[in-house]
Write a structure and sequence with these properties.
- Belongs to the triosephosphate isomerase family.
- Keywords: Cytoplasm, Gluconeogenesis, Glycolysis, Isomerase.
- This is Triosephosphate isomerase.
- It is an enzyme of class 5 (isomerase).
- It is found in: Cytoplasm.
- With about 250 residues, the protein is α/β, with parallel strands linked by helices.
- The chain has one domain: Aldolase class I (TIM Barrel, Alpha-Beta Barrel), CATH 3.20.20.
- Helix content is about 40%, strand content about 15%.
- It contains eleven helices and eight strands.
- The chain has an eight-stranded parallel beta barrel, surrounded by five helices.
- Strand 1, helix 1 and strand 2 form a beta-alpha-beta unit.
- Helix 1 packs across helix 11, helix 5 crosses helix 7 and helix 7 packs across helix 8.
- The radius of gyration is 17 Å and the shape is globular.
- The mean pLDDT is about 95.
- The structure holds phosphoenolpyruvate.
Amino acid sequence: MRKPVIAANWKMYKTTNEAKNFVKQFKPLVEKNTEVEIVLCVPYTSLESLSEELKNEQIGLGAQNMYPINQGAFTGEISAEMLLNLGIKYVIIGHSERRQIFNETDEFIKQKLEKALVVGLTPILCIGETLEERESGATLTKCKTQIESAIQGVPKENLPKIIIAYEPIWAIGTGKTASPEDAEETIKGIRSIIAEIFDIEAAQKVRIQYGGSVNPENIKDLMSKDNIDGALVGGASLEATSFAQIVNYKG
Ligand code: PEP
């Protein structure tokens, strides 16, 4: 059984005070003894104070990016060790905004994924197709290229430590969601790709989220699908009440 994991991606939103207010509001709204693994991926500037706020909570904290080298002359970058030192457990790797706006390549993303695994951070590896690729029937080809590049060569025992977020780019921040059936079909395909690289047993252990305009109205249907193990949520994670409704989707 794969544990559902729902992560917020706040992107470049919220000052530290706003982040702390969110947490104050959010904590009591989360169902007690929830079976959902909850993660907040927040801007670097709020990691330290939220790490304090969430110390004894069931809510994990993640960064939205990292640099794959320990230390050095990389102005403006943050290393995996720096994140670990703050008690951070998760890191988003290869979000489509980083791939598209900051020209991150599959090769660079692989370096980050491997570094995250080596130091013991849980990577949330984002993959997904553009609208053009979807319309030309190239969805799985694109996902295959991205997954193969990232996970080939990763020791098999590390595979269950990776969370994959399937995020069709045309659905991110657009209000357009893949139907639960389409998301399930693609995610099933992604699991088969992992099975081809490793084997079925290994592929069954990898948690695969759906991301792209997830909201309190569509989460339940998405989570009812066999292969969808959670969600990466952007816009709807910025309000404590709506993100709480999402993580409490079972209730
Ligand atoms: C995201 O940022 O990864 C995302 C899926 O955003 P949204 O939920 O706003 O589409």
